[in-house]
Specification:
The protein is mostly beta strands. The chain has helices at residues 97-101, 108-112; strands spanning 2-3, 9-10, 15-24, 32-40, 44-46, 48-58, 66-76, 79-82, 93-94, 124-135, 143-153, 156-167. Strands 3, 5, 7, 8, 9, 11 and 12 form a seven-stranded antiparallel beta sheet that branches. Strands 4-6-10 form a three-stranded antiparallel beta sheet, with no helix packed on it. It comes from Mya arenaria.
């Protein structure tokens, strides 16, 4: 429960992911190609389980420095407004994602498909079967969002992924 206007208690129900689409926006020469990405159930309800499945190919090893840029925007009054980077969340740039990977424990499902979350990332085709993650994003306001993530390695586009989601 939270306190609303004039001290009245308000409660926000679960957040639902009611629309999702993705696009591999990397060009033909991208070092990573994302062939498929699915999220279930439909609709996804947060907090709760989120199932992810994906197939992708790393065409060439990706080492340090692996530069990353993330752009996230929320639709407000019919226009997308960029969310700022606060504490490494939001529209942020990362000088080397390999350094960030060193700070996390690689999830078991990722290790099982052959990625150990350390650089260099090996060239190979990868398939993550439907894998469940428990997610609590009830703090994110309802609305339409778009995100674009780019990875650059040695001046070449490593990967690009665009997502569009609607939370209600």
């Amino acid at each position: 429960m939270s306190v609303g206007q004039k001290g009245k208690e308000t409660s926000r129900g679960p957040v639902r992911l009611t629309s999702f689409s993705f696009k591999d926006c990397g060009g033909a020469g991208a070092l990573v190609n994302i062939n498929s990405l699915s999220i279930t159930p439909d609709p996804v309800v947060f907090p709760g389980p989120l199932n992810v499945a994906t197939d992708f190919k790393i065409n060439s090893p990706l080492g340090q420095p692996l530069k990353g840029d993330l752009y996230i925007a929320k639709k407000v009054l019919g226009k997308y407004i960029k969310l700022p980077c606060i504490d490494n969340f939001g529209s942020c740039s990362y000088a080397d994602l390999c350094v960030l990977l060193e700070q996390v424990q690689c999830p078991d499902p990722i290790v099982r498909i052959g990625i150990d979350c350390t650089c260099p990332l090996k060239a190979n085709s990868y398939s993550l079967p439907k894998t469940e993650f428990d997610v609590d994003v009830s703090f994110i306001p309802a609305g339409d969002y778009m995100a674009r993530g780019n990875i650059t390695y040695m001046g070449k586009e490593g990967a690009c992924l665009e997502l569009s989601i609607t939370l209600t």
